[in-house]
Amino acid sequence: MEAENLQVLTKDEELDVPDDESVASEDSEMEPFEDYRIKIEEMLNGLNMPNFDIEPLHHGYAFINNVYALTSSENPAEQYVLRVPVLPDFRESDGVCEAVENDACLLDFVHGVLPVPKVKTFDATKDNALNAPFMIQTRLPGRSLNGIYDDLSQEAKFGIIEQVVELMAKLESIQFDVAGTFVAAPPEASTVTISHPTMQYFNEGDPEFLSGPDVAQDRQGSDLKAFLLSHMNGWVAKELKDEAEEGEESISLPAYRKLLSIIDALSNEGAFAAAPYPIVLHHWDFEPRNIMVENSTGKWRVSGIIDWDDAIAVPRPLARPPLDWIWDLEGEGYTGYLNTDHQPKSLERLTAEETELKAKFDGLATEKLVGYAEDAYGHGRWLRRLWTFARSGGNTCWYLELMDLMIKDWDERPKPVVPQPWTVRGLVRWFGELLKL
Predict the structure, then answer these.
(1) Per-residue pLDDT tens for 94-143?
(2) Phi and psi (nearest 5°) for 241?
(3) What is this structure's pTM?
(4) Which DSSP helix (H) or strand (E) runs through 301?
(5) Are 279 and 313 in contact (CB under 8 A)?
(6) Residue 82: in which H helix or E strand, if any?
């Protein structure tokens, strides 16, 4: 699916708690669910959706979204999910919640290509009984894969792996002309209006740098090296400006410069393909908790993918972190942007069955997805680690530690053999380096 009709703008969840637990408290400023239920019922009546049973799935400010299951008491097969984003800063605003608009727009765009919830309605304002933005979407059948995967037989896990690889292929089939975030096309109204999304390039970094003549071109993503350099140089420009204004030396600037040198070194090693990489849809939290499965015929079937908040479009290597939960669900490590590219898990502790799962997944992914092995395990792993800081910067202690870790890992890695020009001198040097390995 080629998203050719997207416009381009160039302008300058979950906590580990039970699904049904309410964490409302005086500290969270969230009323108890029984009080909040009255507001939900009033809102549903205003939408001509009376007589729905309401079950809290996530309720309280400890969540990114408050989530409620809605089941019609007249037709139990009619089921929806109400999502209310927790936006403390938005409570004092009279504007429009762009996140709700953007998510609704993206879901509408991919529905029919991917198994995702269908948006029934949404309100991106506070002009409703909840006094908050919300979205109502169909409820996918089944349950979270996270709750059953570990107990499945090896054969059943193989079946899940096959379906996951198929989903990965479908995700990558949705391609775009440029990289960036998805934003809703300017709507005529702030409720129920859904249109194709607009692409906005990633605009993190120094504002003055972003107004430069080459930024829009470099951040399109067709040239992955230029893409990474533009983002990294944007942060360097910001740090230099902060140094000049505050008179204090930047603690992250030396790390940025080292990362820039790593990009050049990767280029010399041939890490960047000569032809442009496809720009693909990336669900950055493609984890078991966001994969729904059902078993209606004695076989587990993936029924859909949920939680599309902050999905992005990026060059393909940046969208291919290994899905190591497939063979190491209980392992320690990060997910999403801070995944095990940064904190790789030891393969030595895997059991025979877990090793078999990894081999099954890697084999299928390599067969079905062009260039998967190199993107997932080769240079792609370094490119994704760089992208973490190119996208988000290094302005927190946590990110600075990860930057230092990456630099340490880079300096300690085995030195690769870089191809030399085919001269006698070059051949002698290349052969000498080869003998050292």
Answers:
(1) 688 888 999 999 999 999 999 999 999 999 999 999 999 999 999 999 99
(2) -65, -40
(3) 0.85
(4) strand 301-305
(5) yes
(6) strand 79-85
| Residue 65 to residue 55: CA distance in whole angstroms | 15
SS3 state of residue 302: strand
Average pLDDT over residues 265-271: 95
Cβ(56)–Cβ(22) below 8 Å: yes
Calculate the CA dihedral of residues 319, 340, 99, 396 and round it to 10 degrees. -120
Determine the angle formed by the axes of helices 253-268 and 379-392, rounding to 10 degrees. Answer: 150
DSSP state of 203: -
Q: How does DSSP assign 118-137, residue by residue?
A: PEEEEE-SS-STTSS-EEEE
d(CA 395, CA 354): 37
Helices (H) and strands (E) in the chain, counts: 12, 14
Confidence of residue 29 (pLDDT cuts 50, 70, 90): low
Token readout for 151 is: 């107990």
For 329-357, the pLDDT digits (tens) are 875 445 544 567 887 777 888 999 999 99
Token pair of 210, please? 């972003």
pLDDT at site 9 = 42
> CA angle 73-79-82, nearest 5°?
110
Per-residue pLDDT band for 16 (boundaries 50, 70, 90) equals very low
Q: What is the pLDDT of residue 375?
A: 96
Task: Count CB-CB contacts under 10 A for residue 201.
Answer: 24
* Token code pair at residue 162: 């096959």
User: What is the secondary structure of 5-65 as a DSSP string?
Assistant: T--EE------SS-TT-B---TTTT---HHHHHHHHHHHHHHTT--SEEEEEEEBSTTSSE
Residue 4 pLDDT grade (very low, low, confident, very high; cuts 50, 70, 90): very low
Query: Dihedral sign, CA of 59, 64, 69, 70?
Result: positive
**One-letter amino acid for residue 412 of the chain:** E
User: What 3-state DSSP class applies to 148?
Assistant: coil
Alpha carbons 195 and 188: distance in angstroms, whole number: 10
Distance CA 126, CA 91 (A): 8
